What we know:
Helix content is 49%, strand content 15%. The chain is built from 16 helices and ten strands. The strands form three sheets. It has a five-stranded mixed sheet. A three-stranded antiparallel sheet has the order 3-10-4. It is globular and about 65 Å long.
Amino acid sequence: MNAITSKTKKIIALAAGLTLLLTGCAGEPNANTDGGDAELADASLTVGSKEFVESILLGQITAVALENAGASIEDKTGITGSATVREALQTGEIDMYWDYTGTGWVNILGNTTEEVPEDLYAAVAEADAENSIAWLEPAPFENTYAIAVPEDFAEENNIAAISDAVTFIQENPDQGSICAASEFINRDDGLPGLQEAYGFEFSEVVELDLNLVYAQIGKECFFGEVTSTDARNLANDLTVLEDDLSFFLEYQGAMTLRQETLDEYPAIANIMAPISEALTADVITELNGQVDLEGQRPKDVAEKWLESEGFLE
Length: 313
């Protein structure tokens, strides 16, 4: 009996010591946030995004990372439309969201697709600073608009580039339909500009929710609007056509936020810099696929990736 009591006391003492050790570790600054947790401890931030999977994922990655750094986060990801989410940023409904350089140049700043600066990110960041909006350093992935067709359809008709598609549609107008989302249909850097640049028109434009387009290419339409980092291009056996006239702009992903938010919490830039740098085209495509193809929740995907990369403690 005495032996059991002695052993029990040792176990209790060991557990108490371990609890103190863990408590001490929990109070230490997070090494992966470069001390950002102390600076964001009093921050209440609202993270937004557009409605498509990649944008929601980027919003969730941001929200999880900043929350890990001590901030209180309100999640407003999934706002429909570029103009709507941008307005939410400018009015202060949200503090930050990820956008793309091409969208910034044309849709936000009102430039044309004809005169594009060599360093698009620098030009957008400099111009948008006048609107009190900061663009953090971009990630090394580019998610451009693209036109896709089923692989077998592309092979049967020798369609590899958009110019090939133009020739095909002019010769076969009954097979010239395109499925696209409302935003692409109405944007100057989308369908109107594409048709003007290549000097043609699709025979029929079928408006669908973007998430429905991929599965309908080759069914409801012969052609479809896609984006280059969407894993559904591979999953649906689609051929992404070469933009041989280089119409589509560079759409490099970068986090945008209110300048006053960045001024108050400069640690945000330090926390997000290594995360952004790690988001290559292959990485974001894989993460997109985990949501679109495997049915995982964006927040779960974000947490798992951040933890696997050592960005969370």
